[in-house]
Amino acid sequence: MDLFKTWEKINQEKFSNQTIKKEEIMKAISKESSLTINELKKRLKYKIYWIVFFIALFIGWFIFSLSYPTVLPLIGTILSLYLIGFFVLFRQYKKMDTEIDPSMNILATMKKNKSLMEKALKHENYFGLVGFPVAVVCGLILGDLYEGQTILEVLSSSKTLVRILIFMVILVPAMKLLGDKMNNIAYGKYLKDLDTNIQKMEELV
To answer: pTM for this one?
Structure first.
């Protein structure tokens, strides 16, 4: 009987120690993930600041070009893209947590913030697919527009269309690759770290 009680006590202490160790590991993962989420949100904020900077530039450019009505539609299109991009990214930014609240479901919070960050980058990628071609066209026909030609007049030239097509084939993929590489440098490591912590937490829960 005494032997049985002793064995039961040992098992209880072992289970208690395992529980404490598990809680400590979960707490460490939560703390590390909080730092990662905070860094991701901070870097997304810097991206939004850059968008605001370009919006201000294009507004200034629009005002400067008021006496050149043929240029305004193109500037307005680019400005609209940046404004849409700003509101979409800012919405994702506001939904992200600065840190993990221990009173909340830690695993669910980690997954939510990872999803929000990935959605923000995915939306930026979509806007890039539209914005890069617009930027190429703008750079190639801007001089003609300032000379008084309309967009339709400029694009009616087969020479201009061929030039646009060539630059599209060369520059748009290059700009896309550069954008993806920059995002991977800025966010890739932190998203991988967060994903690793999510997997660890799933094994413990």
So the answer is: 0.83
